Amino acid sequence: MDSSNDDALDIIITNVVATFRTRCHLNLRTIALEGTNVIYKPEVGKVLMKLRKPKITASIWSSGKIICTGATSEDEAKLGARRLARVLQKLGFKVRFSAFKVVNVLAVCSMPFAIRLIDFTKKNRPIASYEPELHPAVTYRIKHLKATIQVFSTGSITVTGTMGSFDFREAIRAMPLR
Amino acid sequence: MAVSAPITSLIIITCVCVCVHFPSRWTGQTIIYLHHSHPVLCIIVTFPPQIMLTNTGPVAKLYLSIIDDVIENMRELFSDEGLEDRVLDDLRHLWESKMMQSKAMEDFRKNSINSSNFVLQLPASYSQTDQEVTASVVIPASQSIYSFPRLKNNSDTLATFSLPAGLAYPVQIPAGVTLQTASGQLYKVNVPVVVTQAAAGQQPVSRPTQKVTEWREPAAPRPAAVAPNTTHPQEVEPSSAPAPSVTQPPQPNTNYVPPTEESSLPQQPQDPAADTLLLQGADSPEPEFRLEESEPSPQPEPMNLSMTASPCGQSLDFQTGTEETLTQTAPLKSRDVDDILKQVIEEEREKAERARSLTSAKTDSPSEAVLGLDLDYSYSELSDIVQLDGPAGNSDLEEEEGAPLDENDFLGIINAEAIKALQEGDGSSDGNSISSSSDGEGADELANVEDEDPLNSGDDVIEQDIPDLFDTDNVIVCQYDKIHRSKNRWKFHLKDGVMCYGGRDYVFSKAVGEAEW
């Protein structure tokens, strides 16, 4: 009953989180003063740099670890990360683009029907967990895919996981609905 | 009275001022704040001795006081070092002149320009008489004068009256109204006047020998009227020191921008107008300087006359006022202007010293009121001077705001690029060899070190296509109370800062801003 629904579903990737390392120490103050479009958070110890072209926000730590968020695809995340490294290079740091890794991908899709969460949870006892007082959605964890699916009563589904985007369909298919 | 167009507008408002004879200088002051976005409206009818116009910009005053402080504090050090006082004075002169030429000048100039850019036109029915000016208008507290009128676009800083922003000329202004131009000049209307926009070709007429006389009825259709403010009070001064501060009526304000506009000076009907209203001292020098700019040959005399004649009222304020230059446009006669400025500076110094000797204490408003009236004339005249800013824009920033930037505290520096420019000297340190190695070199070195970092310099990674739209000179250097961001909406709550916008300096204690990224 699930598979027939999947073909018509639009799975939209809304967020890709990636990290990479520059293999060199970064002086946050220099970045904050000389970089463009930067937000310095000294209390936390990081600099946020926002890129316009791939709409990306990067958290830059002084250790050289950079977390890139806001991309809409994995390729875009990589491109944005490289651009970011390029910017840091221009600021004068000996940046090396290494250990690029996509950490998380968030996708949403919407079922054309409403979902009865309580029944759904009952059917999927051990896998699905539903705490209405904490969160209005059912949390469905697929271990072998390392994905977490949140099912809302309106039929919206968000999938978040470390796998590739094409695996999302698998995740959704793996989810028994209705 | 001459009115010069504000920097942002080339509109010349012509108005006719009624001059009134006063046996003594008017010292009162009041004014209604006019919407500053409009080229200043000014109607003046001066008079009662208690009316005083002050249009020393608050920014310039602040800067001058800073200069004073620094110089005075350095005096001992200088003498300890064995340097003559002369050196210190030279430094001071240089500093003041430089500052005035660049920013503060604009400040004053804007003041005077705004005020002087309008010319009042008396209604046709006006008949010249020896009207006794009665202070029928309530004089609001003068503190509003210093409330950064330029910064507040639409605030009615003065309680009494404010012309709407969308004022369409000509404007009829009834008698008994006191107006204040955006630049801070105060004008009191005793006679119903009509303020219209002057033709471009209006020019301030300098009447060096003008004495307070009666006004002739202006030709109604003629838009260009006598510039209310003017210079002439200074010219009159020599003849009678306490002379009524009346500015030459036929001082049309002209755009400082194009010299061509300042052409038909002599045509004002009011030229011969006897009474010169002394609306604001600052105005007087303006037309003269404008004249200087556009017609250097015929005009320098009157200007010089006025400059020398003007009594030394306020020391610093007047000096800065006289130094007004038109930064806006073409440096038409910059050389002349510079010479004149230097001359003026010297003269004003002398006058200031004289003033100081006259007055025991040098205070701001009181001294201004007492002494500075005549000096104020010069502002308007000076405003017409067109002078290009040299590198002073940045240099002044550095010298004045360089210190705060060096602090380790993270100040709310809005313009990252500007800060970058200012920080050039610091260079980036901290173990990253920036200064020496070029970007290309660094990239090449890194290019093929590991498979993991194929960061080819520019091959793979496209340059950030950031148009350097931050290459502006508009900078705000301040402290921040709160900076907030929601997605790409930013809100700024700033405090205690200086903003350099359009070449002019604005000093504020609180500022709120919004922006979208």
Automatic annotation (TrEMBL), chain A:
InterPro entries membership: TBP, TBP-like, TBP_dom_sf
Subcellular location(s) of the protein: Nucleus
Protein name, as recorded: TATA box-binding protein-like 1
Record bears the keyword Heme: no
CDD domains, alphabetized: TLF
Keyword line: DNA-binding, Nucleus, Transcription, Transcription regulation
Similarity-based family: Belongs to the TBP family.
UniProtKB/TrEMBL annotation, chain B:
Pfam families, alphabetized: TFIIA
Keywords: Nucleus, Signal, Transcription, Transcription regulation
Cellular localization per UniProt: Nucleus
Region (Disordered): 199-272, 285-334, 348-369, 424-445
UniProt keyword annotation of Transcription present: yes
Keyword Nucleus carried by entry: yes
InterPro entries tied to this protein: TFIIA_asu/bsu, TFIIA_b-brl
Name of the protein: General transcription factor IIA, 1-like
Source taxonomy: Eukaryota, Metazoa, Chordata, Craniata, Vertebrata
